[in-house]
Backbone:
């Protein structure tokens, strides 16, 4: 999480003096919102992501192998280029399976106070989503076969909104996900729109 | 009858006998495809088919008329239909947002209407009552809203809701005269109208002309016009301008006629908590919605309207799902046209607790601006587009004159500054307002207790500059084209605002929650057997 905060702060000194400091009076009486206090996901989610992209890329690479071999046999001169292209996909797969998941994991975080649930995610395009807890319509727990293998669960929070109508928190420890869900339902609100 | 309510049924009704006639009429349109078969094909088959179609539609219409009943029982409006398989639907009265009424030309002859009942959830109307007599709809509407108000009052929430009159007085907020309608027509983007007309004519002509005709006409036109252009350039240009002007003129006339047909006699009025709209020259439409259901209000000032100081008001209610076939019904606008200066006083009517001041820059509210880096970003983005266009043109023509897109650079900078000046937001205790755009400007007003989620996004470039985009999500965005979105906010400010909005949204709802929990139990559908098409 520390890593995340540092990255976000990295560019702020590029803003020149023309910007007036933010006027706190607009928010009088609001609680302060520091960028700290975020919970990380369960670290096993790194391996879950690795496994799922391994499977995805495995299927893709194998199915790509068929046309590569077929065309290569028919037109031997094209084989080199096709093989190179295929290897490029392999390189991308290695990057996605090895390098990317831990970094994505570090970018992820969530925190809950009495009124709001906030999630942070994204490595390249980062986004923070804030959900007023009284807006919760319902909460789902999702456990796919892979997630069950790793003892993890994903929490899906639904609102009545239009664009970000649901927020998914992946890779929570299964018991923790259940606890969170119960907690959210307990403090969560009504469905009046 | 399945649900045994404790409270006795207080209101009962059924469809107008003309339901059968209108059902048959609708079916008559379905018969048209059979006609060629009847005339040219196998006459016996055609006749049998015709008989089958007619008989089945007659049966459906009769069944619908005789089996369809509705009643108010306790806190619910219950509709019931079907003879063999009964389908019953219960709609809690407090959930009913709108009783929408449509009256086509034929309906008007017999003084009957189609009524649609809208609630917060689901696609389209929750129940469709077609057809009812006009007096019956008035009776139904009065019964529903009076009873809903009474339920709220009994639940002890009336005092907080403001005034809940049992028979509230209707106050006209705005009435559009023919002058206003002409103004709508003149400020609509009429190129689209002209194209639509051309398209319609083309479709019409296509039925009568043969392919070879197009080819010959095209060739002749091209040959003659190129010869004409070479010989008399001035006359040709004048002709082109005249054609363009004629095109625009036709567009203006078409859109004015369309505006008059659609919005003739537009009246926006308020009675108690409900906003009523009534409009239409041929098909008369009327609808009402409780103002506390407005999720987002959008003040739209497209280029032409902005030049004349005019604006359009749009509102999203949580029940508003855009129905495709309903596109020309004018449902999407709360007020089709108004002077921009007249909007601010209206806001207090739509939002009784509006506390964000005037949204017109002068004297009223102070818009908080975003980072000045927005200007630079806008200018750089525009410059890149210009440079690319110039490069492509230069590559093709290989001439200095082809670099003319670069001459647009000062204009690009001017637009960036203007956009920056118009981009801003204000945050008050109960409302969040955001404004954007220079050539076409739109202002979103969101009651904070209607906010569903808040999002802060950063692209890699945003991160380098320490900026972010803030967007606010609300329910049922069908007519305003998305909620407010502000880009180029300094990241710390974006975070603060997002946190404040989310916390306030949660807090407001907590107070309301206790009130509303009694009311909102969701609409319940008891669907036994197959679904019957409305």
Residues:
């Amino acid at each position: 999480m520390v890593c995340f905060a540092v990255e976000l702060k990295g560019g702020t000194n590029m803003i020149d003096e023309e910007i007036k400091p933010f006027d706190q009076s607009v928010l009088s009486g609001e609680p302060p919102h520091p960028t700290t206090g975020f919970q990380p996901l369960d670290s096993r989610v790194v391996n879950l992501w690795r496994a799922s992209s391994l499977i995805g890329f495995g299927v893709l690479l194998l199915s790509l192998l068929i046309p590569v071999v077929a065309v290569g046999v028919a037109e031997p001169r094209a084989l080199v280029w096709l093989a190179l292209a295929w290897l490029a996909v392999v390189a991308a797969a290695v990057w996605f399976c090895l390098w990317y998941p831990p970094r994505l994991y570090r970018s992820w975080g969530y925190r809950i106070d009495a009124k709001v649930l906030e999630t942070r995610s994204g490595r390249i395009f980062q986004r923070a989503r804030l959900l007023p807890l009284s807006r919760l319509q319902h909460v789902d727990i999702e456990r796919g076969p892979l997630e069950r293998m790793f003892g993890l669960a994903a929490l899906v929070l639904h609102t009545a909104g239009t664009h970000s109508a649901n927020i998914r928190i992946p890779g929570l420890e299964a018991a923790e996900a259940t606890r969170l869900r119960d907690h959210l339902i307990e403090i969560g609100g009504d469905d009046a729109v | 009858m399945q649900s045994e309510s404790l409270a006795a049924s207080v209101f009962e009704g059924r469809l107008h006998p003309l339901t059968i006639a209108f059902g048959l009429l609708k079916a008559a349109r379905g018969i048209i495809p059979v006609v060629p078969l009847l005339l040219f094909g196998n006459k016996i088959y055609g006749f049998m088919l015709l008989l089958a179609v007619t008989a089945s539609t007659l049966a459906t219409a009769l069944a619908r008329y005789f089996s369809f009943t509705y009643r108010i029982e306790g806190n619910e409006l219950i509709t019931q239909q079907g003879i063999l398989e009964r389908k019953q639907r219960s709609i809690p009265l407090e959930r009913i947002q709108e009783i929408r009424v449509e009256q086509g030309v034929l309906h008007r002859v017999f003084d009957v209407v189609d009524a649609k009942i809208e609630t917060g959830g689901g696609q389209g109307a929750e129940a469709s009552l077609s057809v009812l007599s006009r007096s019956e709809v008035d009776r139904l509407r009065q019964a529903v809203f009076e009873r809903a108000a009474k339920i709220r009052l009994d639940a002890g929430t009336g005092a907080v809701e403001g005034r809940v009159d049992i028979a509230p007085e209707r106050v006209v907020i705005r009435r559009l005269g023919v002058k206003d309608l002409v103004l709508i027509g003149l400020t609509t983007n009429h190129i689209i109208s002209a194209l639509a007309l051309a398209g319609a004519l083309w479709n019409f002509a296509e039925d009568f002309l043969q392919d070879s005709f197009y080819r010959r006409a095209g060739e002749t036109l091209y040959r003659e016009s190129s010869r004409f252009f070479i010989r008399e350039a001035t006359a040709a240009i004048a002709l082109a301008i005249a054609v363009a002007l004629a095109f625009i003129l036709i567009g203006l006339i078409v859109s004015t006629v369309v505006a008059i047909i659609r919005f003739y006699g537009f009246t926006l009025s308020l009675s108690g908590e409900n906003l009523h709209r009534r409009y239409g020259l041929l098909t008369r439409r009327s609808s009402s919605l409780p103002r506390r259901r407005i999720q987002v209000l959008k003040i739209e000032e497209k280029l032409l309207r902005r030049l004349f100081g005019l604006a359009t008001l749009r509102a999203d209610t949580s029940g508003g799902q855009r129905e495709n076939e309903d596109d020309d019904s004018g449902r999407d606008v709360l007020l089709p046209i108004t002077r921009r200066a007249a909007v601010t006083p209206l806001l207090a009517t739509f939002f009784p607790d509006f506390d964000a001041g005037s949204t017109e820059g002068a004297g009223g509210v102070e818009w908080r601006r975003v980072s000045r880096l927005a200007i630079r970003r806008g200018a750089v983005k525009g410059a890149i587009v210009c440079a690319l266009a110039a490069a492509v043109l230069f590559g093709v023509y290989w001439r200095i004159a082809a670099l003319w897109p670069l001459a647009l650079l000062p204009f690009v900078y001017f637009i960036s500054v203007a956009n920056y000046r118009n981009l801003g937001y204000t945050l008050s205790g109960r409302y969040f307002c955001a404004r954007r755009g220079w050539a076409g400007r739109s202002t979103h007003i969101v009651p904070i207790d209607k906010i569903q989620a808040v999002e802060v996004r950063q692209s890699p470039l945003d991160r380098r500059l320490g900026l972010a985009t803030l967007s606010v999500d609300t329910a049922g965005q069908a007519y305003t084209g998305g909620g407010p979105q502000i880009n180029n906010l300094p990241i710390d400010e974006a975070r603060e605002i997002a946190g404040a909005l989310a916390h306030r949204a949660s807090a407001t709802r907590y107070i309301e929650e206790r009130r509303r929990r009694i009311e909102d139990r969701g609409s319940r559908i008891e669907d036994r057997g197959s679904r019957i098409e409305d």
